[in-house]
Amino acid sequence: MLFTFQNITYTLGTGPARQITVSGSVSEGGVLVVRGPSGAGKTTLLRVLARLQPCDGGEVFLQGESWQHIPSPLWRVGVHYLAQKPALFDGTVADNLAKPFETRVGSKHRFDPGRAKALMQELLLDAHQWEQDSRTLSGGEAARVAFIRALLIEPKVMLLDEPTAALDGRARAAFYRTLSRWLTSPGHAALLVSHNNDYQGLDRVSFVDIDPIQGDV
Ligand SMILES: Nc1ncnc2c1ncn2[C@@H]1O[C@H](COP(=O)(O)OP(=O)(O)OP(=O)(O)O)[C@@H](O)[C@H]1O
């Protein structure tokens, strides 16, 4: 298995706490769809797995190596969380795409503007948008820019949180084409949260369910 999480336990909410325990795994080339009703804790699970928020217990393995042995910033290069609301900063699209390569952990790869532009084209963004202020992008455009940035970082596992929610039909098809191709190159896998069940075209899909009635604590 490329990515395995065992008995990941986390607590939801600030009111009466609900504790969830969930396990799952995904092999190279596979997509693990995280299912559960609204508020079940799907986003929280992805954020825990990316080590963007703490959990109460459990262990995660990337290529057999426990997260306990890998510093968080490095972990997040290998296990990339793509937020439902794209986290772009002020600056152009090009600035946003180049940004990860300015940091120490990101600098293991060089920023490749040619590849970035090819991905923009593939994801139906206009070449002139390279210089566009990211604050003026539509929701669907911003989502695709964040996806391109994720691809450029070259993670092993992508944690995709409703990545097509803001996309129209054509952009959605382009997104899944690009994702499918990425999954066919070695050492890649994805976890996916999607409310609109639009992942049918993907190969090797498996499921993990978050049970919303797991015990109150
Ligand atoms: N920072 C927070 N503070 C308080 N409560 C939170 C916080 N983050 C999440 N929650 C609560 O935890 C629960 C799970 O949220 P989460 O976003 O993980 O659910 P989800 O399954 O992804 O939902 P949806 O399908 O609606 O996106 C919700 O009840 C939410 O209100």
UniProtKB/TrEMBL annotation:
Database matches in SMART domains: AAA
Residues making up the signal peptide according to the UniProt record: none
Protein keywords: ATP-binding, Nucleotide-binding
Highest taxon, organism lineage: Bacteria
Keyword Repeat: no
Gene Ontology molecular-function annotations: ATP binding; ATP hydrolysis activity
Entries under InterPro entries matching the protein: AAA+_ATPase (IPR003593), ABC_transporter-like_ATP-bd (IPR003439), ABC_transporter-like_CS (IPR017871), P-loop_NTPase (IPR027417)
All copies of domain ABC transporter, residue ranges: 3-217
Keyword Nucleotide-binding: yes
PANTHER family, per database record: ABC TRANSPORT PROTEIN ATP-BINDING COMPONENT-RELATED, ABC TRANSPORTER DOMAIN-CONTAINING PROTEIN
The name this protein goes by in its record: Putative ABC transport system ATP-binding protein
Lineage: Bacteria, Bacillati, Bacillota, Clostridia, Eubacteriales
